[in-house]
Amino acid sequence: MKRIAVGRLFHESHGYAPATAAADITVVRGETVIEAAKGNGTTLGGIVDALIERAHIEILPISSDSMVAPGGAIDHGFYVEQRQFWGEELKKLAPDAIVLDLHGSMYIAGSHEISESILIFEIA
């Protein structure tokens, strides 16, 4: 059986908007990620539905934000916390593959784009 980790990062950052505070972002973790995505018509939902159709796949939820409304750059502390969680979770789960729903241009306050850095882990 193949073990596939799934997750989502979804936010559109705009340079002229105030920073998006961590308190404004709802993070979903665990089986709730899978249950909320099933059949909901989102990209993550399509990923989950397609994996469920395959008999020899175990779906391993990582994390999902709740599709935060477009706003400013993401709070740096929130980014650090999420990066640490994702790294630890991927090491613990040891998946055969990772499938992510990445949307938007998510920037970290005072730093760089999240999708360029949050996904670089040493998981071996």
Brief overview:
The protein contains four helices and four strands, in the order E-E-H-H-E-H-E-H.
Written description of the protein model:
- The chain has 124 residues and is of the alpha/beta class.
- Helix content is 31%, strand content 23%.
- It contains four helices and four strands.
- A four-stranded mixed β-sheet has the order 2-3-1-4, sandwiched between helices.
- The chain is globular and about 45 Å long.
Descriptive labels:
alpha/beta; four-stranded mixed β-sheet; 31% helix; 124 residues
Give the topology.
Layout (H helix, E strand, L loop, with lengths): L1 E9 L16 E3 L1 H7 L5 H10 L4 E9 L10 H18 L3 E7 L10 H4 L7
Parallel strand pairs: 1-3, 1-4
Antiparallel strand pairs: 2-3
- Main sheet attributes: strand count, strand direction, barrel closure: 4 strands, mixed
How many extended strands? 4
**Can you list the strand order of the major beta sheet?**
2-3-1-4
Q: Round the mean pLDDT to the nearest integer and report it.
A: 83
What's the overall geometry?
globular
Q: Whole-number radius of gyration?
A: 15 Å
- Residues in helices, as a percent range: 25-40%
Distance between the termini: 19 Å
Count of separate DSSP helical elements? 4
Structural class category: alpha/beta
Share of residues in strands: 15-25%
Are there runs of 5+ residues with pLDDT below 50, and where? none
Order of helices and strands: EEHHEHEH
